[in-house]
Each structure stands twice: as C-alpha cells, then as structure tokens.
Amino acid sequence: MTKRIVFTGGSGKAGRHVVPYLVDKGHQVLNLDLVPLDHPRVNTLLTDVSDGSQVFNALSMHFGFDGLETGKGPAPVDAVVHFAAVPRLMMRPDNTTFLVNVASTYNVIEAAVKLGIRKIIIASSETTYGVCFAEGDKDFHQFPLEEDYDIDPMDSYGLSKVVNEKTARAFAMRSGADIYALRIGNVIEPHEYDRFPAFIADPPSRKRNAWSYIDARDLGQIVHLCVEKDGLGHQVFNAVNDTITANEPTAEFLKRWAPGTPHTRTIEGFEAPISNRKIREVLGFREEHDWRKYVSA
Ligand SMILES: NC(=O)c1ccc[n+]([C@@H]2O[C@H](COP(=O)([O-])OP(=O)(O)OC[C@H]3O[C@@H](n4cnc5c(N)ncnc54)[C@H](O)[C@@H]3O)[C@@H](O)[C@H]2O)c1
C-alpha cells in the first residue's frame, strides 16, 4: 500500500539512495533538507530541522501542488524517517554536533507524535558502540555487537545518538507510537566498493567500523521494512550487511585482530561483527549487495 512518508536529510549520502528505494516501492515522499534532492518525483521542502517550529509546520503540509486538488487540506502522514544530522565529528564544533543532533531528533519525534503520526524511524549509528570515534585504541567489550550491548561512546556525536535512542524510547512509552532506531553501519555507496581492497589489506584500519558496513541500497530495504512492520513499539536495530569485510572467517579473524575481546556466542562463518540477526529475524531483511559481488579481492 502506498504510504505518505516525510524523510529528513534525504539529500545526503544515505538519503539519496534510501529515498529512491522508497519511491520505487510505491511510496510518496516529501524530503526535508537544507539542500534539494535531485529526484523527479520528490519535492524538497527547505527546512532546518533543528528549529522545532519549522518541523511542526513541515510535517503538516502538502507534499506538492497536487495536494491542492483535493480541496481538503494536507493528507495525513503515515511515517517519518529522520536522517538529517551532523553526520560525524570534525564537521562542526563538538557542542554544536551534540546540540543540533539531539534537538533535531527531539523536534522531529515530538512533532510527529503530537501530530498523530504512528511510525517514526530515526538514524542512530554504529558509533554508539563506542569505538568509532574514541580517543586512542579502545576495545569493544564483546562480540558480536548486538542491540543489548552496553553502549558507551566518549565522543559528542556518538553520545548524541545514544540520547536520541533514549528520546525515541521516551516518546514511544508516552504515545504508544512505533519508534525504531537504526544503528547504521558505515554507509557504502555503489561507487565506493573500490575502497574494499584497501580495507581487506589493512585490517586495523577498519576496527573503528567493527569490520562491518551497510550498502546504501540495502539500507533502503531496511527502512522500507521498518515502514511496513507495525506494532513493535520502541526498537533498536543494527542496520548492517551480513558479512565481515575480510577474507578470513569471523571468529578466527577476531581472535587475530581483537584478541582481548570475548565472544558471547558462536560466530558462524563470515558473520559481520556488528550482528544483523535481529533485522533478518524480525523484519525479514535479505541483503542484496554483498560486497563480494563488487570486489575481486
Ligand atoms: N554515513 C555513514 O556512514 C553513517 C553511519 C551511521 C549513521 N549515519 C547517520 O545516518 C544519517 C545520514 O547520514 P549521511 O551519511 O547521509 O549524512 P549526510 O551529511 O550526507 O546527509 C545528511 C543530510 O541532512 C541534511 N541536514 C543536516 N542538517 C540539517 C538540518 N538542520 N535541517 C535539515 N537538514 C539537515 C544535510 O543537508 C544532508 O543532506 C545521519 O543521521 C548520520 O548520523 C551515517
């Protein structure tokens, strides 16, 4: 069934693949961003989501001029996908990274809930696992990284994502809405697979990403599955592809490159150290873009 989806940050690296995926599935999408998305069927409403009044307004508007034809005012929104953010450290001062990300997520979730929108999907991050933007060489507590991990980032970006997951939980409790947070791995666009031979050749270089990744198009599938799957309340999902970015089976690879980190269960075959078992079992995710299809390493 066609759904009306408001997507924030759709003009960015991940959004420009996820938005077309949703459109191809038959959904209507309105993009809220500071810059336009070049897509013939998606209007971008230039909106600063760190400003709550703009968010409230943008979530209750027509998606485009065709909305005027009904004469009934803007139709209800079925889902909000919130990707807009300062997407990493070193782009803005640390306090701005934290404040913009926390305020924007609060604004989007609060406005959506108060406007009666029952499905909200937010972009959390692999950085919540604490190693990506750590000072120095920090070890993970355990492998595989699953959603019940004691997340403990020390940086302002990762901390903003932890707070955002808590904001999602608070509003889900308050409202009964479905609010799903995606712990997105390192996003890989189709043209970026030429980076993989270097990843494979230099294992320490990928420790901060836990030797895991998400293809931007497979992220589209995950968001679509979240849009379609109702009734789960507050959820956190790792959003990564199935396998490790290495040529050695995961258990042996981790013993060699992360020898101090215990394993909490058997890690089979080439399973990614950030586990995507939950999205496979709960949402029915089936990856389409295994990196091995694009890399002959
Ligand atoms: N790229 C990754 O590897 C990665 C990994 C984990 C999580 N994430 C998260 O996924 C989301 C998307 O990441 P991305 O890589 O596409 O980032 P990006 O910077 O490429 O895209 C973010 C988009 O948000 C927009 N934006 C920023 N501030 C805004 C504001 N105040 N109001 C409206 N729009 C605003 C930007 O213009 C941009 O188009 C982010 O929340 C990011 O934190 C990304």
From TrEMBL:
SUPFAM superfamilies: NAD(P)-binding Rossmann-fold domains (SSF51735). Residues 5-198 form the NAD-dependent epimerase/dehydratase domain. It holds the Pfam family Epimerase. CDD domains: SDR_e. This is NAD(P)-dependent oxidoreductase.
